[in-house]
Amino acid sequence: MAIRNILQLGDDTLRKKCFEVTDFDDRLHTLLDDMRETLVKADGVGLAGPQVGVLRRVFIADAEEEGYYEFINPVIVSAKGSQTGTEGCLSVRSKWGTVTRPNKVTVKAFDRYGKPFTVVAKGKFARIICHEYDHLEGRLFVDIADSLEDR
Ligand code: ZN
Asked: What is the value of pTM for the model shown?
């Protein structure tokens, strides 16, 4: 495993739409293992492919109570309610933002072996998923924040 460099705001890669994963192979597993190690080192709660320069529809989320998840080719199939709270990003180290997100989302995705699964996420876990999903579309929280402050 290896720590990967986390791209920062201003890098064009963060603004690109990601491609679907087609091969659930060793290369994908290495990417996911590296992303997890990178996330732990950075003390974050989520990390998406483009943040480490890989334009594939992949993100990981570590939401304390719910545990650690890997999402490949995720689709948010329903979003309900709303929550407003503070958000940050490992690719935007200079700002915190106040961001409104759905309070509950249902996500369909694949695991690293290509097996489909569905997760219903609420609260903080739903926030992380929405934030990471946006990365796959080239969107950052600073685009949709109600307000921003220096951190
Ligand atoms: Zn982020």
From this structure: 0.97
Report every protein residue that has its C-beta within 5 angstroms of ion ligand 1: 89
Tens digits of per-residue pLDDT, 9-36?
A: 999 999 999 999 999 999 999 999 999 9
Give catalytic residues, as residue numbers: 132
What tokens appear for 14 in the block?
A: 């963060």
The token pair at 21 is 């994963």
Ligand 1 centroid vs 124 CA: distance in angstroms? 14
Judge whether 105 and 134 are in contact, CB under 8 Å.
no
For the four alpha carbons of 13, 60, 18 and 95, in that order, the dihedral sign comes to: negative
Domain 12-150: give its CATH code: 3.90.45.10
Q: Give 25 Cα–ligand 1 centroid separation in angstroms.
A: 25
